[in-house]
Structures are given as structure tokens and as C-alpha cells.
Amino acid sequence: MEASDPATSSSEDVRARWSAGLRDAAARAYASGHGADPPAPQPTRWRLDARSAATAAAVLAVLAAVAWWGLRAEPATPLAVVASASPSALASAPATGGVAAALIVHVSGAVRSPGLVELRVGARIADAIELAGGLGRRADESSVNLARPVADGEHIVVGRLDAAGAPVGSAATPARVDLNTADEAALETLPGVGEVLAARIVADREANGPFAVVEDLERVSGVGPSIVEAIADLATT
């Protein structure tokens, strides 16, 4: 067991005596002023009555709510950017909510892909023919006005020219085309018969023999009742 340091013990004794002297002096001063000894020291305790406790709790709740509301991140509201349209753009915009109405027309005759085509309002005959594949061979451009605006639901028929350059159906040439003897160019003068169908008709009659009636054309791939009906008065066998 280690021996205590004499210097340390002496210092602690001095502090203890000094503290005791202070307490005695304070007690004598209290006694002389109050005529009695000072009361014994009591441990300090914090006590709150019910009303004080409720008030303190309410204040803390309000402070917490204010702090939460101030620190809460508000979602950013995107700004809608609206581009101003020029007067010319507004004037050219269609009156149907910005969506142009469509026109449906039927194109037949001397065109490469006869059938229904869809056009924008204001389109012309030339636009309809272009969507139908363009003019076919021996097409008679004079039979239609390419610059005329189209109307919804109309039927555009492009005339044909025969081998001599005369319009088919005119007084200078017979109106009917013989399906068993006509070449591909003559067959293309029939409504709904383009280059592809004309070649198929020639190949079919060479492979399977002549057509007995116009309705026999339906045996050719791509020829349906609508085409047969369209050429019934223009073809013969």
C-alpha cells in the first residue's frame, strides 16, 4: 500500500479548515441578523402545478407546429409556358380544335393504285391522284382538272388513251376491250386495272385459257367483284 503524500494531505486539510471556517462565519452572521441558527440545507426540487404544466405543454406544441410549418418543403409549381401564335398561324389553323378534317374520295381509272384515299381539306385532284399511285400508262390527263379542289365523297375517274392516243370510249374507237386479245396497255384502260393486274390477266389467260365471261376475271389474284362490276360495260370476251 502506497503511503500518502504529506504535501497533498496538508493541502486538503487547509481547504477543509478554510471551508469549515466559512460555514461557521456564515452561520454566526445569520444568527446575529435573525436571532436564530440558520435552517438545515434542503435538496432543491422543481415542482410545477397542473395549470403551469398544461401551459408549458401548449406553448411547446405551438412552437413545434410553427417550426414544422416553416421547414416544410413546399412542392414547386411548374410554370406553363405558352407560346404566342402569330396572326398568320391562327388564320391558317382549322376551326376544329387544331385538327384538320379529312376528306375521303374514290380514285379510279388510269391510276396505279385505284381505291379510297384520305386528304386534307383544301386538297386538289392532283393530290388525290398522287396518293393513288400517280397516273398510269396511257392516262388521259385532259379527262380531269388536276387543279380542282376535291369534295368529300366524290369519285374521281381518270380517263385512258388507246394505242392510237385517242380517249377510250370516244367515237373514234370501240368502247369495249377484249379480255382475251387485249395487250397489257389496253387492259390498263379499264377502271381499277393497273400495270400489275394487267400483267396478271395476260399471264392467267395464257396459263388457263381464255375467259368465257367477264366474271371469269375473278379467278385472277387481285380482281374482285367491284372491279368486274366497274368494267362490265367496257370489256368483252
Pick out the low-confidence regions: 73-100
Q: Helix content range of the residues, please?
A: 25-40%
- Averaged pLDDT, please? 74
What is the number of E strands? 6
Q: Spell out the CATH superfamily of the domain at 175-237.
A: Photosystem II 12 kDa extrinsic protein
The CATH architecture of the domain at 175-237 can be given as Orthogonal Bundle
How can the largest sheet be summarized?
4 strands, mixed
Can you write the helix and strand succession as a string? HHHEEHEEEHHHE
Distance between the termini: 140 Å
Share in β-strands: 5-15%
Side by side, the strands of the main sheet go 2-1-4-3
Which class of secondary structure composition applies to the elements? Answer: alpha/beta
Assign the CATH class of the domain at 175-237: Mainly Alpha
Radius of gyration, Cα only, in angstroms? 55 Å
- Count of discrete alpha- or pi-helical segments spanning 4 or more residues: 7
The global form is rod-shaped
CATH topology of the domain at 175-237: DNA polymerase, domain 1
Concise summary:
With 237 residues, the chain is α/β, with parallel strands linked by helices.
Output the keywords.
single chain; 237 residues; alpha/beta; Ubiquitin-like (UB roll); DNA polymerase, domain 1; two-stranded parallel ribbon; 38% helix; rod-shaped
